[in-house]
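Reminder to self: tokens first, then the designed residues, so the page reads top to bottom the way the pipeline ran.
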């Protein structure tokens, strides 16, 4: 019997990665500039504008960064038994016997609509088609869309070579499956909920978040009341050097960024059972780090200048 090897059909990535990396660089430069001015202005309108310029560009960075990571790892793999769709932390294992049909999106009488919120090179999300129903996009190029229909939903993919994927699927159907495959769906939200169900992890996440929130509120109230503070290393034989109190905002901001970085790293490690102890270590370290920043803020504001 003729055999069919495993074939990989990754989506086009170069353009999408270039766009995502460019966005990350631009937003990072804007944020760094905002932080630069934030530490050099007094409390007031300029401080507020600098604070917004520093914070707002950072908010979409995790979203854009995850999309870039997902695109880098994206792949479509097919053999005689199943079709595997990998897109970041999203994974779908579909037995070939569950696939009702596979065809180019251009064959449809009514074209499919793209998701409302997407970045060029990373088209993900759900849309509704008047004939097909729900369509989940895991694609990068709207010009190479291939639709995969199952009994549950339609998947929109964009392999680099759509024609070859269709031929490979047709050939695999002719040969038939060798072994049964259990359907599997993995979503990023499932990973978060799985970790959240564990009491210790929930405590670490909540304690770190509440400490950061409390530090933000405390520092924001202190800045107008204190003109200057002793922040940074101080020479032992000289007078204490002081800086504008607005620089206190750097402490909760730094703790927030480090805590988020640790939170994401822990989630990445939590995916594998053998790496979960490392995830716990990262999350414990993150909460302790926030506590140390809070202690540092206390000593900073209580040091006479």
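Designed residues (305 positions):
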């Amino acid at each position: 019997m003729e055999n069919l090897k495993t074939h990989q059909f990754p989506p086009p990535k170069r353009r999408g990665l270039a766009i995502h990396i460019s966005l990350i660089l631009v937003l990072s430069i804007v944020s760094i500039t905002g932080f630069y001015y934030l530490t050099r202005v007094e409390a007031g309108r300029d401080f507020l504008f600098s604070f917004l310029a520093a914070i707002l560009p950072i908010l979409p960075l995790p979203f854009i960064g995850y999309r870039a990571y997902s695109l880098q790892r994206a792949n479509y793999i097919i053999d005689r038994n199943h079709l595997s769709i990998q897109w970041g932390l999203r994974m779908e294992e579909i037995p070939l016997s569950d696939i009702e049909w596979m065809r180019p999106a251009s064959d449809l009488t009514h074209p499919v609509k793209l998701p409302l919120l997407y970045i060029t090179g990373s088209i993900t999300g759900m849309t509704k088609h008047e004939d097909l129903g729900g369509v989940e996009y895991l694609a990068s190029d709207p010009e190479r869309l291939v639709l995969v229909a199952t009994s549950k939903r339609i998947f929109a993919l964009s392999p680099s070579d759509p024609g070859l994927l269709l031929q490979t699927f047709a050939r695999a159907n002719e040969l038939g499956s060798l072994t049964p495959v259990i359907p599997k769906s993995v979503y990023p939200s499932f990973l978060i909920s799985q970790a959240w169900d564990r009491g210790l992890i929930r405590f670490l996440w909540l304690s770190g978040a509440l400490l950061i929130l409390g530090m933000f509120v405390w520092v924001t109230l202190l800045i107008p009341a204190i003109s200057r503070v002793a922040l940074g290393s101080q020479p032992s034989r000289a007078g204490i050097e002081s800086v504008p109190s607005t620089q206190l905002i750097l402490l909760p901001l730094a703790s927030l960024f480090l805590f988020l970085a640790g939170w994401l790293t822990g989630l990445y490690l939590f995916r594998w059972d053998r790496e979960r102890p490392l995830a716990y270590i990262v999350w414990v370290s993150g909460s302790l780090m926030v506590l140390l920043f809070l202690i540092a803020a206390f000593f900073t504001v209580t040091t006479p200048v």
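The chain has two domains: 1-186, 188-305.
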